[in-house]
Amino acid sequence: MKFKLSQILDSNLLLEGRKEDAIRKYGEEHTELINLLSDADPSGNNKYLGWMVKASLGMLSSFDTPLADTVARRVTDFHNQLSRIKNKDINSYKDWGEFIKVVDEALSKAEEKRISKEAVKVYEDDDVVIMAPMTVEASCKYGAGSKWCIAATSGQGGVNQHFDDYSKHSNFYFFIRKNVSAKNDPVGYKYALQFRFTNGENLTWWNAQDNSSSNAPSFVTTKMMDAVRAYNPSHIKKKLQVHLNSFLAKPKLSDYKKYRTILTDEQRVGVVNKIISSGQLTSKHFIILAPDLSEEQKNNFINQYTKGSITASDYEKMKEHLTEQDKKAIIINNPTILNNFKIMSELNDVDFSDETKFFITKKLDSKLINNTDSKVLLKKWSMTKEEREKHNETSFYVYLSDNDIKSVDSLNLMDKVSGLVKVDPLDPNSYRTINMLKLKKQVQQEMKMYGIKTSFGLLDKYLSNDLKLPSNIADIIKEKSVEIG
Fold it and tell me: Contacts by 208-213 with C-beta closer than 8 Å and gap 24+?
């Protein structure tokens, strides 16, 4: 289909005109809300914008004012179900509750139509119809009123797992008697035939009260059973396909791994998009979906759905699917991950450049970092290139002495220095070394602890007591030593 430039311009003018009208009508103080709703308007030309703003500002009859995202979601449902809605003029709805009722009825009709396609009519005559349900929804629809667990509308946690569990080894056929009601015959108005996947026939009949028998009910004819037997081989194949179609229409994360290997590339992209657009995402979704996310999907996921929700444990599972940019975004959104010093060390030594580390410190909330080692390393990350270079021009040393070092003769200085150790204020391991010296000082109370800052590597060769200190070095130690409390 070709579009003229004038048509495109007219469409854009209409869109912007309706937005400007809404701002004039409802006030510039609501500009942010109006822009948000304009972006969410499913018509593409702000056809619903005025009504959406009115609803979000509580100007419809309603017990509670709906949230803007709720309005956007429900108007999208309205737009998508227009073919099933009699009154298509959204501006005629003056009551939010009335609008929701109409939308829900349309969604219910759509769901009913979808479910009806998930069962196959195997046989029908004047007295009996035989349905082969392919999904739990179809089983609940055609098994309604019975006590069969495979047709229960809810189970543990509000989910019916029985149909899928049985479907791993059995097909079901519902024999529904047209001229017999549940009121007249609550036991025999419908039966379920369980047809197991075994060599030979392994059949079990279940009446509506969920009592089993190996004998067929008296109303079942040879013609009915011939139809079931003829259909059963293809039933197995079709059930798998219908399950897949149901999954494609309404994908759930819990089923993604199960179907992933049989999806085409196109189907996989569509399923991932539907799961992401559901908006109910966690880091668990990322761990499962990551191998199939495009870069755009991955960035969208990380930036919008993982803020504050990724733990260190989640990150460990996710990291093999992450680029340096992905990791940077996740750490900024989830700084508490850095409280795991093992992860922070790996990021420091392997993953992040100095520029990336510096950038991260300007974006994350450092108050959320409470691990001591991580705090020290974060301080190093926060340094500019010039600050790091200046830091690297100096060295730091600590030692213990049982004398006031300032009063010791330079010739005997090394004899009075115990355990000269090189440390780095930006190295967490150095703090452990310092703490060990502090403990030793507490045990030997006559000891004093000193620190020295010198030019780079000045005292490195004297870290053992084997070498005699030149007088100029001894003088430097005396001059620069500072007692540490």
Answer: 208/145, 208/146, 208/147, 208/148, 208/182, 209/146, 209/147, 210/146, 210/147, 210/148, 210/149, 211/187
| Structure letter (DSSP) for residue 61 | B
pTM of the model: 0.48
Band (234; pLDDT cuts 50, 70, 90): confident
* Confidence label for 352 from pLDDT (cuts 50, 70 and 90): very high
Nearest to 151 by CA among 170, 172, 124: 172
CA–centroid distance for 22 within its chain: 35
Interatomic CA distance for residues 419 and 451, integer angstroms: 12
Give the per-residue pLDDT at 455. Answer: 92
Helix/strand/coil for 138: helix
Burial environment of residue 148 by CB neighbours within 10 A (0 to 12, 13 to 18, 19 or more): buried
| Residue 419: Cβ-neighbour burial (10 angstroms; 0-12, 13-18, 19+) | middle
Q: For 378-400, what is the mean pLDDT?
A: 92
* Mean pLDDT, rounded, for 173-179: 97
Query: CA–CA distance from 438 to each of 374, 376, 420, 427, 443 (Å)?
Result: 21, 19, 13, 17, 9
